[in-house]
Structures are given as C-alpha cells and as structure tokens.
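Async update (no meeting this week)

Hi team, since we skipped the sync, here's where things stand on the single-chain job. The sequence we agreed to prioritize is pasted below, unchanged from the tracker. I ran it this morning and attached the output directly underneath so nobody has to dig for it. Comments welcome in thread, and please keep replies under the output.
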Amino acid sequence: MKIYSAKKIYSVNEDFTHTNAMAIEGEQIVELDDLSCLMAKYPAAEVITEYENDFIYPGFVEPHLHILGSASMFAALIPVSFTDWTINGRTYKAVRTPEAFVSTMKERVKEFSDRETLVLWGHYEPLHGELTREILDEIDSTRPFAMWGASIHKLILNSKAVEDFKVKDIPDSVWGVIKDAEGLPTGVLIEQAMFKTAVEHIVSKVSPQDMMQSLQSVLEQGRSKGVTTCVDMGIGISMPYEMELKLLQAADAIPTMPKCRKGYMFGWQKVYEGQDLDAQKTFDFVDQHYKSNKDNNTLFPVKCIKFFADGAVSDYEIITKDEFQDNRVTGWLHRFADRTEDTLAEDMSKFWDNDYSIAIHTQGDQAHSKVLDAVDTLSKSGKGRDGQMFIQHMGFTDDEFFERVAAMKYKPSASVTPYYSYHFYSSWQKEQILPKSCFNQLQRAQSALDAGMSVSLNADIPLMPTNPMMGAYILMTRLDIDGNVVLAEEAISRQDALKAITKVAAEQHGLDKIGTLEKGKLADFTVLEFDWMQDDLAKLTALDAKACYVGGEKS
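Output:
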C-alpha cells in the first residue's frame, strides 16, 4: 500500500470535499483522509511525500477526440494553423493573418520538397483569407498539393491533386464535391467527399511506424496537460476500425507510450452503410462488440453511438433558424442513402431503448431544436435516462432550447468546445456571415447548467490541441485570445469547470470507475502546482501537469 500526501487532494465527489492524503492499494483507491489518520491506520504503508506541496485531482478526462485520426494527421500533414502545434518534438507556431499564412505555405512547400504529395493543415478563412485551387496552383502545381481545413471538415486541392485523387470519379451519392457553374469540381471537398478522399489518398499512405510515432506525440500532449482517459468520437473514420483497434492494442505494449485509458465508439452512419442499410443489423453489430470488449479497462468501447446533425461551425456548415447574412444555403449531415434529418429519432431508437448514450454533433440553433424533437419522440417509449442524448459542441443555442430542456423529463447533456469563443468569435464578428442572432448564442454553458444539463468540455483534437485546463479557463473567464470577454453571463464557476473535466466527463460516458477520487475507484489522478479553487486562473493558460497516474502507476 502507498499513501500519497499533498497540500490538498480534491476528491470532486458529490460534496466536493478535500483532504491531504490518499491511500492506494494496487490499482484502486482505499481511502482518503488526513495524513496522520491514514498513517496511523496503515502503519506499514509507504508514504509518498513528493507532492506534499502540490495539489492532486481526479485524472482529467478528454471526452471527445480522435485518437488515431489525430495520429494519422500528425504523420501525414504539416500544420499551418491559427494555433500552436507540437508534433514529434517540433513546435509549429500559429499564423493568424492572410500574409503570414501564404508566406508560411510557401516555406512549407520548399522545406518538404521531397514529398511526392504535400498536404498542409489548418486553414481558417476568417483569419487566413480565401483559399482556392488556383491559389494552390500558383504556389505548387508540380505535385498533388492540398490544404486541409482547421475544422477537419474541408479539403482544398490543387489541380494536380484533383486529377490524381480522381475527384471527378466520386459518385453523386457521396455528398460534398463542390462544383462550379459548369458542373466541374472546384477543388473544394467537404464532409463525406472530403473524408472519402482523405482516407483513400492521404491517410492510407501513412506507415504503421509513422503512425505509432505520431500516436505517442498525441498521447504525450494529453499527458502534459493532465489527461489520464480519452474517448474517441467515431472509430473507423480514418481507417477500418479493426486496424485502428490493432494499432491501439499494439501501442499499449510499447514501454515508452504514455499510459492513458482509451475509450471509443462507432459512428452510426459508417456502421449502417456497412450493415446493408439495416437498422437492426447495425444495432446488433455495435451491441455485440460492446458486450464482448467492455471489460477491458485500458482499451474499451463506451456504451454510446455517434450521429451528426449539421456540420462544422468554423466552415459555417451549420443549420440555423435565421438566414445567413450572405444568404448562403447549408445542409444537414444526416442525409445519405435512405436517411434524412427527419429519421433521426427512428435511427436512434434501438440504441435509446437499450440504454445507450447517443452522441450527436450539433452546432446551429435549428439543429439543436431538431435534436430536442428527437428526444421528445424517443421519450414516448418510456425508456431512456437523463443525459442519454449527448450533444457534442453545442455551438449556438437560443432561449427556446433551454426553456424546452428545463421542462424535459429526459434532459440531454452537453460537451462544449470552448475554443470557438476563444479563437473564432471576433473573426465571426468581422466577417458578418453568421446570422446576427448567433452572436448571443455561443456556447452557453451556464444556461445549460441552469436548465439542468450536465456539461463537460473538449478540444476535439485535431481541431485543437488537447488541454482540459485551457478549456476550463475559457469557460470560467469567457476571455478570447485578445483578452475580450465573450458573453460574460455564460461563465461557469471554478467548481463546475473542475467537474467538467473530471466527474461529469466520466459520467457522460458511463465510466463509473474514474472521474472522482473515492474509495473503490481506480487510482487515476493528476498532480498540479495549482490550487484550482484559489489560485489565479491565468496560470492555467501555460500550466503543465506535474504528474499523471493511471491505475496507481505513473504515466
């Protein structure tokens, strides 16, 4: 047995108690109490005083990322992004003006001249300006050259890439090939067409060795920010799910790989299409996989299925009640094969009735309204539970949404991506493309709590680097990158922010063995030189974890 002492140990339990010592036997927590009491009760225990001047918290949970999707991007793509990225030991600094963006693209083209295909990553139009096939042709027309958007939902190709990636051969049934007035590809691919092209012509070229090196970079990034558990929102997107699981299993056998519990779920559309468009076969496949693999504490399926309502907020591919200021038309993502947004409840029903959580990517206020319609329909079965509809991102929500939620028996839960307000809000105001109503609707975390929802937060890596502490800082302060306050009334408390990256993030995925520091729970904990309830919040913007433990072992 070991007893860890600290200045404070925040249990983040129901009463939010804290003490200064924790006894651990093997992988489990035995007891939390005052140090002198535990030493007297367990006189043979080894007392660890290394953290006696630090603060211990439940291990941070990153509830929405793409583990091997991020690793494959790290291996295949070169960042030219609006935020810093550290990949395989190299830091690529942020670029936030059109001039710097073009200049950096040209630098990357020269530096990586030996690559037969060069794909950059990180374009965000409001900051970097418009990017077209013609602009890419001017920079490099000699090889397939492409820019993957920061949202991970858009791919812009030069003419050579359009030809080599066989864009003209993509069938009309695959949505997302943007065409000109003559019906020819513009070189811009979004959503389904983008993912199809990326998997077949970019990610598939990454070697297993490069994948493992980049996976280590992904996990090291999480460890440095206190992450001990992560959940992949849609395994099988970047490669066949069997291959993803084999690579993740192999990674756990590598001694230098950071320890991290890895949960995952399937995307409904991917499974539905692979199961002959048969809803029952889709459920049976997912359910059998869950039952066969759920008892693995290191790599495991969570009891959840992933849907999409609308698209990426940073690309304006969202469904809103009011018209966009430039009158653009956007589309629902749940439109494929024989399915539409009106079949959402029907498609979700087998999972709802069998107590699965349903994660749904939802951004615009109209899309959120459609999700609540589905909850209303599903609730009539008399089955389900609070939080079973798990809203991902919660971009723009109006008052009507929260009024409906407050009156619901089965309330959805939410996982907010705080970086929208931090990085994008001021650029959206300058662009004046979103409906004006959206500017008072962005990521209303406190309104969600007031309506009875549980709220976690996420980075959605590779959209943003994994950093629960930075995400919590944004939700607590509502400050953007320039120091401006974005909807101050939606700031949440320190206590709710700490719960969002520990207790709530675990509960939303049914992970009842982690999330708090209590007797019988797994000994997953994070050590910080920071008192969450008292110290200056600004310290969180540059803070690294002093240590992370998974099952009582240092990561």
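Quick observations from my side:
The chain has two domains: 78-201, 208-550.
The domain at 78-201 is CATH 3.10.310.70 (Diaminopimelate Epimerase; Chain A, domain 1).
Reply here if anything looks off.
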